[in-house]
Design brief:
The chain has 283 residues and is mainly alpha-helical. The chain has a single domain, classed as Orthogonal Bundle (MetI-like fold). Helix content is 71%, strand content 0%. It contains 10 helices and no strands. Helix 3 runs parallel beside helix 6, helix 6 packs antiparallel against helix 8 and helix 8 runs antiparallel to helix 10. The protein is elongated, with a radius of gyration of 23 Å. The N terminus is likely disordered.
């Protein structure tokens, strides 16, 4: 309990948010952290070399090969573990890239105002009226297959949402008395932005980003499924599912296990995002 009159520090706020996450939120966030560790350092979790034939083709799941083997004889579990690097990490990167681009444009638009605000908002609206999936597919197809190109394509269609949120929050904060007082007292522009505007807009942006993770993962998997992701032999969850979809009736484990991995990622991301939203809003 914080004594009355005692300033609430950032550490205190963080502890309060953490306590509000609940069991499901804590488990999902811990799960995503573990997945991030596996994606960054996959070698300790690889039972076999994911690029080398280690057994007969199309073996069913067993104690030796937990997810079976693919059509070449490679261990499917090891390939799914490696595929997390090409699905989860690019998804986080897209969120960060879109967040930085969109929030930066939104803050500039709201802070400067006038003609600058009008021009930037018209550009933003041009992106908003077009279906994001269609824009991403068009950009990815024009740039060619590859993880970087796919990330750029999705970020191009994702940043306007963060721009709208950042602009609305900054406009609301500019009308607050503390901002007007800081400006009247001669605070520098950088102080006004980074001390009075950006911290106030951060919770709303964080909520939006947390809730968007699963959508970005699905978009990346869709791109990979359509052949616009990382080329062979690098595995991606979407491409692993697409290449073996014709074998569903004969070798069900080939498309099912990569699809289950996508489902698990999106489920954990959705639960974590909703928990973060409720914690930051104090519900």
């Amino acid at each position: 309990m914080v004594a009355r009159g005692t300033p609430v520090t950032q550490a205190t706020r963080a502890r309060r948010v953490f306590r509000r996450l609940g069991f499901a939120g804590t488990v999902s966030i811990v799960g995503l952290l573990l997945i991030t560790v596996v994606a960054v350092f996959p070698q300790p979790f690889l039972a076999y070399d994911p690029q080398v034939r280690v057994a007969a083709p199309n073996l069913m799941p067993s104690l030796t090969h937990w997810c079976g083997t693919d059509e070449i004889g490679r261990d499917l579990f090891s390939r799914i573990v490696l595929a997390l690097r090409y699905t989860w990490l690019p998804g986080l990167s897209v969120i960060v890239l879109s967040l930085l681009l969109g929030s930066g444009i939104g803050i500039v638009s709201a802070y400067v105002g006038g003609a600058t605000d009008t021009v930037l908002q018209r550009v933003t609206e041009c992106f908003l009226v077009m279906p994001s999936t269609v824009v991403a597919l068009a950009v990815a197809a024009s740039l060619g297959p590859g993880t970087i190109n796919t990330m750029i394509a999705i970020a191009v269609s994702w940043w306007p949402w963060y721009c709208i949120i950042a602009r609305d929050e900054v406009r609301r904060l500019k009308a607050r008395p503390h901002f007007e007082a800081a400006r009247t007292n001669g605070a520098r522009r950088s102080q006004l932005v980074f001390r009075h505007l950006l911290p106030g807009a951060t919770p709303s942006l964080a909520i939006a980003a947390a809730l968007d993770v699963s959508n970005v993962i699905m978009a990346l998997s869709l791109m990979s499924f359509l052949g616009l992701g990382q080329p062979d032999p690098a595995p991606e969850l979407g491409s692993l599912t697409a290449r073996s979809l014709d074998s569903l009736t004969a070798f069900w484990w080939l498309p099912v296990f990569p699809a289950c991995a996508i489902f698990l990622l999106c489920l954990l991301a959705n639960v974590a995002g909703e928990s973060v939203r409720q914690a930051l809003r104090g519900r």
